[in-house]
Amino acid sequence: MSEMTAILSWKGEYKMGDSFLLNGKETPFQQGQTILEAAKNGGVEIPTLCYLKGSAPTGACRICCVEVKGARSLVAACSTPVTPGMEVFTDSELVHRARKMNVEFLLASGKHNCLMCESNGNCRLQDLAYFYKITKLKFPEKDEKEIYPIEDVNPFIIRDFSRCILCGRCVQACNEVVVNRAISQGYRGKKSKIVTGGDAAYNDDLSECVFCGQCVEVCPVGALTEKKAKGLGRPWETQKIRTTCPYCGVGCQQWLHVKDGKIIKVTAVEDAQPNQGRLCVKGRFAYDFIYSEERLKTPLIREKNGEFRTASWDETLDLVADKFKEIIKKDGPDAIAGVSCARSINEDSYQMQKFFRAVLGTNNIDHCART
Amino acid sequence: MIVLIGTNITEAHPVASTFVKDAVLNGAKLIVIDPRRTDMVDFADMFIQLKVGSDVALINGLMNVLITENLYDKKYVDSCTEGFEELKKKVMEYTPEKAAKISGIPADTIRELARTMASIKPAMLMYTLGITEHICGVNNVMSCANLQMLLGNVGVECGGVNPQRGQNNVQGACDMGALPNVFPGYQQVVNADARAKFEKAWNVKSLPDKPGMMMPTMMKNLTTGKVKAFYVFGENLANTEPDIHHVERELQSAEFLVCQDIFPTETTRFAHVILPAAAWSENDGTFSSSERRVNRVRTASVAPGEAKPNWWIFKELAKRFGHEWTSNSAQEIWDNEISVLAPSMAGIKYARLENDGLQWPCPSEDHPGTPTLHRGGKFTRGLGMLKAIDYIPPAEVPDKEYPMVLSTGRRLYHYHSRTQTGRSAGINDLLGEETADISAADAEAKGIEHGEKILVKSRRGKVVVKARVTKEVPQGLVWMAFHFREGCANWLTNPVYDPLTQTAEYKACAVKIEKLK
After folding, report:
1. Residue B120: CA atoms inside 13 Å, Cβ hemisphere, count?
2. How far does B225 lie from chain A, in Å, by closest CA?
3. Which of A291, B6, B92, B143 shows its CA 20 to 30 Å from the CA of B42?
4. Whether the predicted pLDDT of A12 surpasses 80
């Protein structure tokens, strides 16, 4: 897959040597780069909400607005290409006033009450409101009656439209990144809403949603959150542990969000190979089997009456070893055979084949690769 | 260009499919070859809906056109491969007309497909179990390789024959030598030098010099008495192997069955001893993905009760035979044993796996890993081997009594026998039971409604299961998965195997469907 992504990321020869003025400092850029990208390379991080790396910029949220000398108005850094000699100001009073105003509009666009929001501590709108020291709403909040009701009938994703800022990142992720084409911008004006086909619930027959959760992954606010993680831990209470998905052979990189030794949710590792911030329904949502009450917790030995009884490790392993020794003595090592596990770690398979070959003395070791 | 053959990638490897779709949006051509109209067909430039099990005939027909019309990569074939004359002689027997008869694809479509394939470079061929799960699985794989070598597509970035592996660490289990013929790193057990190396490393006088049994042979020999003890680590054979009635008789015959698992399964019912194991997030370790990428797995939670890491269990068992193994963690096992003993992984150490892992071959600690094999058409064996291959039909073909073909596979929401996904909250809400996927034409002929329970019967068993009437399957085909015990396709599947790999023919057997009275 890394090979395929190599094709995707190749955008042709870059012409080197061009530069522009970034906050008065001469800064190099590559042909075709946007102000946002070139500024980042130049060490200036411009805040964004709607911008989604790898997708066509929409310029919808206007948070990334910057001043360009000679331009009639502020421009969106995410969608404006740099030209040689362009003078860009990212930190001017005008820029900050405009950004603050945009944040104030967004704060009034719904019910952005952070105390009750699952994304508290993991919200770009919250970060911006804090940065701009906004302490009260400047514009009247959207009327409750005009806000679409929460959808949480599906098993995995809570869609809270009162927190949606219509940035469109979820739509881009669904259509341009994972290309499941399940959601789009629906209705117009005040009635605007991110919708599935037929404006149905995610798990409705009309919906094309396959629950990859990429929309949740990219939502910058609390409009799309993981249902199973609700109430289980705030970002500052959790530790992120990187691991590899236990399902198919793609090998996606995951962050396990762990609180008090328990995994409360799983997200993708952005920019990691091979999955580049993507997961599927199993990788993102099918992690809690490990906490099932049905887990095997002690060694079990079958009694003569056919029932299993619990036993200590020592008793059980002694029994297995004695039985194997007895069989080897009577019928030779090739009377023992074993299959290893294609879901378990390399080191486990290594140990099992070593046990069979070096200890038992047989090559009767296999696993399910062939079936 | 990307060619998908025998792979339902959006369901079996969803994240890989997103990159294929991205490539299409960026202008890549896509060809889908499959008996079913899978979701990727929506993105395809050509959809080749061949008959189940006719892959060799179709590919031979394509190669016939490539050679006849002089469209193949002569330079590549001359300098990088051998066996062309034998291949040519064989594929000359497979005119597009003959291939059409077997595959159901019109001769002119075969010509058009061959011309399209020859017109774009590089092209990557991706396959999954639709290629391998046949009695001619090896031949199918070699046919894919033949085609790609003939087109000069092997050994280049974005080219090659790219099998997607079905399980997180099936690649790794192979790499580690959990196979009857090889030590870790694919070193042959029949090779005296390899044995001497491992004898020294493992501190034993001798190691067995003959390849052991493959899994189907092991299981067969449970009933003959040749195998007395069977050690099943993390496999639910009673659901995943073909012909469940037969499999359960075999498991029942074991004199001593040890199961090491994280859950009680249909298989542990037959065990004499069950060993509780630590699961995925309860271990430090490594997985190796389809692209030979070794990646870290990290501990995030504690194993329940007395469940123990699997490597610890084997170490403790070895101790009871007087073998004191010194490695005492997954990292020690990897760094001090595996990477020392397997030359292709010699450069892979835990310290180097902190970010995106490493792809083997990685022979030294300053080697960056190898994303693309056979670079520049230089193969491991020297020249790429073109093989003349004949088509053979599936072992069991439809007849009067069982007039339909059953093909099986996996669905998006579940994984194998559901020991994991069935216990993950919410997944069962999205897919709660098995279905038999049939065409509208077959449904109509039998008076079957969508969602109605029907009987599906083969020579080996029968299941009652909901009919799912869908455009995905053509007339004459029934498609099912093996995720649910009730309605599991493996009550029906045929335990016949590829002679070389003993891979079972899950993709083709004969069945009939009946409306319930």
Report:
1. 19
2. 8
3. B143
4. no
Query: pLDDT for A165-221, tens place per residue?
Result: 999 999 999 999 999 999 999 999 889 999 999 899 999 999 999 999 999 999 999
CATH 3.30.1380.10 fits B2-164, yes or no: no
Residue A327 and residue B228: Cβ atoms within 8 Å? Answer: yes
If contacts are CB pairs under 8 Å, which of residues 259-288 in chain A contact chain B? 261-263, 272-275, 278-283, 285-288
Question: Residue A357 and residue B207: Cβ atoms within 8 Å?
Answer: yes
Residue B98 phi/psi, 5-degree rounding, is -70, -45
Per-residue pLDDT of B380-433, as tens digits, reads: 899 999 999 999 999 999 999 999 999 999 999 999 999 999 999 999 999 999
CB distance A367–B179 less than 8 Å?
A: yes
Q: Which domains does chain A have, with CATH numbers?
A: 18-91 (3.10.20.740), 233-293 (2.20.25.90), 300-370 (no CATH)
CATH class of B170-366: alpha beta
Distance between CA atoms of residues B184 and B191, nearest Å: 13
State the pLDDT confidence band at A336, using cuts at 50, 70 and 90.
Answer: very high
Place of tokens 């030590």: B183
Chain B contact for A367 (CB, 8 A cutoff): yes
- Name the closest residue on chain A to residue B415, using Cα atoms: A247
Model ipTM value: 0.97
Residue B11's Cα: distance from chain center in Å?
Answer: 14
CATH 3.40.50.740 spans which residues of chain B? Answer: 170-366
Name the residue among B132, B110, B94, B82 with its Cα closest to residue B498: B132
Question: Which residue of chain A is at minimal alpha-carbon distance from B335?
Answer: A347
For residue B256, which residues of chain A lie inside 8 Å, CB to CB? 323-324, 327
pLDDT at A15 over 70: no
Please give the single-letter amino acid code of residue A353: Q
Are residues A346 and B207, on separate chains, in Cβ contact within 8 Å? no
| Domain topology for B404-515 | Barwin-like endoglucanases (2.40.40)
